[in-house]
Amino acid sequence: MKRMKGNYSNSGELLIFSHIPKTAGTTIRRIIDNQYDKTRIIRFPQLDMLSAEQLNQTEVLYGHCRFGVHRHFDQSFSYITMLRDPVERIISTYYFALRSPKNRMHEKVKNMSFPDFIFDETRDGRSPLVNHQTRFLSGEKIPDLEKAKENMHEHYTVVGLTEMFDESIFLMKKYLDWNEIDYSSSNVTNNRPKQNDMPKEVIELIREKNDLDYRLYEYAKQLLLDNMKALDSASKREFRTFINNRSI
């Protein structure tokens, strides 16, 4: 199986963090803020406010942007992103919106049960609850799994997983030549029910409506495992030290 791109050059290449909502992306954005000159980081969707000169001086772009945003720039580029188990991401989406009055979905969900929310949202194939992660990586309005996989190999230095967060961050650190990292999870939705607490038919509906996302997730998981397995002995020792330092 092919591996992720993994050959980022930090000399003049634009790094794009495509932040899929509720995938631990806020934590990664904070890490990025500590790794780069803040004057050369821009947040999507501020692109229209910048001159061509400012765009070309940009070192990092992050935000809820899909694949394809690089077309606004003239320089070479590379993406990173995080995926999450689709059911976990959707449960987190609902409870985060429910408890966050400023969230754009709050007014809709505040008077809806989780099952009602799922049954309502998944009727529309354009919903962020239907194969949204595949839509992000493919850059297409209609989610395209094969295009997402192609983009992953051609244009993504790392596609991490929320469920393998430490491994994902370690590979980003290694491939992107980041300095030492100290992080804790941000924007976490606490005290929410687990999958096993939810009605079985609701979970089955989420899985059915997110078949492409599940296939993409499993594909990315295998790539991530392959990348970790391919590390040389020194890098594996470095990873163990990285994990040990995280637990202190």
UniProtKB/TrEMBL annotation:
Gene3D superfamilies: P-loop containing nucleotide triphosphate hydrolases. InterPro entries: Golvesin-related_Golgi, P-loop_NTPase, Sulfotransferase. One of its GO terms (cellular component) is membrane. GO terms for molecular function: sulfotransferase activity. It holds the Pfam family Sulfotransfer_2. This is Sulfotransferase family protein. It comes from Peribacillus cavernae.
